[in-house]
Amino acid sequence: MTRVLIAPDKFKGSLTAAQVGAAVAAGIRQVLPHASTVVVPVADGGDGTVAAALAAGFEAMPGRAAGPTGESVDTMYARRDDLAVVELADVSGLLRLPGGQPAPMTATSRGTGEVIAAAIEAGCRRVVLGVGGSAGTDGGAGLLRALGARLLDADGNEIADGGAALAEMQTLDLTALRERMAGVRLTVASDVDNPLTGPRGAAQIYGPQKGADSAQTATLDAALTHWADIVAATTGHDHRNTAGAGAAGGVGFAAVAILDAALSPGIELILALSDFDNQLKDANLVITGEGTLDAQTLHGKAPAGVAAAARAAGIPVVAVCGRNTLSDNRLQAAGFTATYPLTDLDPNIHHCITNAAPLLTHLATHIAQHHLSAANPHAHQPHRL
């Protein structure tokens, strides 16, 4: 029996990864009604990370936590045995900003720490934290405070939330945090290799995406530098230049410098949680994808990770996407046999976003015809619509 493994990321602003997979599977079955289609939603550490864990058999653990501007939001983490998967985007992310209004100076990661604290309280001893899509640049200070850290000003008072307030900090007390985190292992899922500070740091590179103007960006970078100085003085180790410290507005820094976390490419963690190597067994074709295939795709994004795993197993991979900006040569070098953008069917981007599901189903019929039909002499050959 023909077996197709469908492992897409979300089409941001259009379809979840599971919805992408369902649309593709429907198209495959239109051409090959008896084919086995297995959908494994994936993510790279940003939004969709918990959904991917749930699809892999984890249990949803709902709760409430502080959003990026302090309002309470409904969120959840995923759990299997003593392992929790926490998604920063779902509690402290840009999508959680009230009315979509940026708060670059005051947005906090506190809610993410509250979710981790809840998981630990429930008995989890291992935590995977996906950190893409953050709304703030607070150096992970909010997350640490939710886990018991005290960040005090010169008068011994707690400083306010947000990155700008770090400039007022004088003392870092980790006593309660150390007690709470004893025996807990944290892994951060991220594809970012930026340091905390400087021209490639969290504020300079990502601050503008979160609403910071040039003056605010400079203020935040200075505040993060002060924060890094105090952390180094408190712990005896300076991690401001560690690759990945700039992830999620500096949450990566807090995780490594204070919580002794390991940093790992998000897609690699998700594939491991999904038991992807076993899913690959006996597959004739792997189909992956995301909303836009571009240069970032080739640097740790989900489709590239799926392609690498499939290529290692000797299984051909094709990609579906909303639009593609990469050349065939670059895609083939990354392991993709072919690419199928929705814009090949309809060049109107708005139409592609609003009609993504039926367009994906139609694309999948072409994939089945060109890559799975035993009668087709061009099966498994590079093809574009």
Automatic annotation (TrEMBL):
One of its GO terms (molecular function) is glycerate kinase activity. Pfam families: Gly_kinase (PF02595). It comes from the Bacteria. SUPFAM superfamilies: Glycerate kinase I (SSF110738). The keyword Kinase applies. GO terms for biological process: organic acid phosphorylation. InterPro entries: Glyc_kinase_flavodox-like_fold (IPR018193), Glycerate_kinase (IPR004381), Glycerate_kinase_RE-like (IPR018197), Glycerate_kinase_sf (IPR036129). Keywords: Kinase, Transferase. Belongs to the glycerate kinase type-1 family. PANTHER family: GLYCERATE KINASE (PTHR21599:SF0). NCBIfam families: glycerate kinase (TIGR00045). This is Glycerate kinase. It comes from Nocardia tenerifensis. The lineage of its organism: Bacteria, Bacillati, Actinomycetota, Actinomycetes, Mycobacteriales.
